[in-house]
Structures are given as C-alpha cells and as structure tokens.
Amino acid sequence: MDTLNTRPTWLATLLPLLAIWQYGDRSQVRGELYRMALSADAGARSAHALNRIADMLDSDVHAIDMHREELRAIARSALADFDRVPPSAPIAMAIEHRGHLQ
C-alpha cells in the first residue's frame, strides 16, 4: 500500500465524476466508484481491527496484554484489505494528469 499517495478520493473526484457520468463514459465512472467503495470497505475493516485491538479484555474485564505476533496478525489482516484496492482508476489518473487533483 502506498500510503504517501493515498488521497481523499471522494471529495477530490466527486464533481468531475458527476460531469463525466453526464457527458462522458459511464463505465469509467463505475470503475472509479467501485475502487472508491473498496477503499471505504477496507477503511471500515481496518477501523474494526483497531477497535478489536484496543478493546480486548479478559474474562475478568481487564485489558489483555497481547503478544506482538497476535497484534501483527490483526494489523496485517486489516492492511491486506488495502492491498486489494487498486491504486487508482483510469478516470482518476486522467483527471490528475490534467491538473484537477492535488
């Protein structure tokens, strides 16, 4: 996952996507919306994984001291969702090359 190039795609591309939906190739817009949905799902699953780590309690309702490997496994599982999200869709790349995305 390239975290340095992760952008807030919903805000940055919503208006251009609507314009392309109305006047251009709708399949490009569908592809970008699908990628954005995958990214949102990965973010939600990562937030859930972080909550699991933060809220782990034993049977006496005390915080559990976890082993490093267990924590790494939970984090790797959450990050694997982001690895399945394409870095960008063709429409976002075209808009970015024209200088509309910062």
Topology:
Layout: H1 9-23, H2 26-54, H3 68-83, H4 90-97
Plain-language structure description:
This protein is an all-alpha fold and 102 residues long. The chain has one domain (7-97). Helix content is 67%, strand content 0%. The chain has helices at 9-23, 26-54, 68-83, 90-97. The chain is elongated, with a radius of gyration of 18 Å. The model has no long low-confidence stretch (mean pLDDT 73).
Which class best fits the helix and strand makeup?
mainly alpha
Q: Please tell me the total number of domains.
A: 1
| Uncertain residue segments | none
**Average pLDDT:** 73
In whole angstroms, the N-to-C terminal distance is 19 Å
* Helical fraction: 55-70%
Rounded to the nearest angstrom, the radius of gyration is: 18 Å
| Biggest β-sheet description | none
What proportion strand? under 5%
| Count, helices | 4
In short:
Helix content is 67%, strand content 0%.
Short descriptors:
single chain; mainly alpha; about 100 residues; 4 helices
